[in-house]
Amino acid sequence: MKTAIRTVWPAIMLMSTLPAIVLAADPADATAPVAGQEYHSPLADYQRWQYPSPGDWRAANDRVAEIGGWQAYAAEVWEASQQADAADDAPEPADHHGHH
After folding, report:
1. Sign of the dihedral through C-alpha 74, 75, 78, 83
2. What is the spatial distance between Cα 18 and Cα 24, in angstroms, rounded to a whole number?
3. Which of 55, 64, 95, 100 gets the highest tally of CB atoms within 10 A of its CB?
4. What was the pLDDT predicted at 98?
């Protein structure tokens, strides 16, 4: 059964394109009706970039003070650098070059 379907399948696919080939307009006939084309520009909905609103600077300053000020941000960077240094100090794996 499967071999019969595999044998017939290409013929079915070929025949399914037949109506499109037969009913296609003659390209040499200038009076043949042709389907209209619709164009939508990708720039039709373009909106130029605008600067975001800066917001309330007093609220931003208050938030930074709640977090701990600039020292809190500096501590985050320092901790990250310490972790990176610890990763650099880790022993490297043994060389197994050429082994498969």
Report:
1. negative
2. 10
3. 64
4. 63
Q: What value does the mean pLDDT of the chain take?
A: 81
Residue 3 CA to residue 29 CA, distance in Å, equals 44
- pTM comes to 0.29
Separation between Cα atoms, residue 41 and residue 36, nearest integer Å: 16
Q: How many CB atoms lie within 10 A of CB 64?
A: 13
pLDDT tens-digit profile of 43-91? 999 999 999 998 999 999 999 889 888 888 889 899 998 887 776 666 6
Residue corresponding to tokens 């006939």: 29
25 three-class SS: coil
Place of tokens 């309330």: 56
